[in-house]
Design goal:
There is one protein chain. The chain is of the alpha+beta class. The chain has a domain at about 35-105: Beta Barrel (OB fold (Dihydrolipoamide Acetyltransferase, E2P)), CATH 2.40.50.140. It is about 30% helix and about 30% strand. The chain has 2 helices and 5 strands, in the order αβββαββ. A 5-stranded mixed barrel has the order 1-2-3-5-4. The termini are far apart.
Length: about 120
């Protein structure tokens, strides 16, 4: 009985957390307005004064103006994969936030599988 109650409460907590997360995301999108967009790509260049960055989104280079606040909270370098939320302004795209895109390292064997060869492979005794 206690285990069942624990799992019910755990599930309810997850559902509530998911709902709050989705609500916040919708709220944040409304706050940013409809003129914001997300650019994902490789950082090609960062201005010496950090006033803008150039990001290649896979098809073209995009110039995004930045502020000191945005650049201080992320330590972007040329070559980094990043996701930038930017808002269209009179000047051009202005970064609202930046975050890294982390690639998962591919392993040569799946988790839980034994390697084909080695000191304990089948057939060797």
């Amino acid at each position: 009985m206690v285990k069942r109650l624990f799992f019910i409460l755990l599930f309810a907590g997850l559902v509530i957390s998911l709902g709050v997360g989705l609500s916040y995301r919708a709220f944040a999108q409304e706050e940013k307005g409809t003129n914001s967009q997300i650019i994902k790509g490789t950082v090609k260049e960062i201005a010496d004064d950090e006033g803008y960055i150039i990001v290649n989104d896979g098809s073209k280079d995009v110039k995004i103006y930045t502020t000191a606040d945005v650049m201080e909270e992320t330590y972007l370098e040329a070559g980094d994969e990043a996701e930038i939320t930017a808002e269209e302004t009179d000047k051009g795209l202005m970064a609202i936030s930046c975050s890294y895109i982390f690639e998962e390292e591919e392993s040569t064997s799946s988790e839980g599988e034994m390697p084909e060869s080695g000191p304990f492979s089948e057939g060797e005794e």
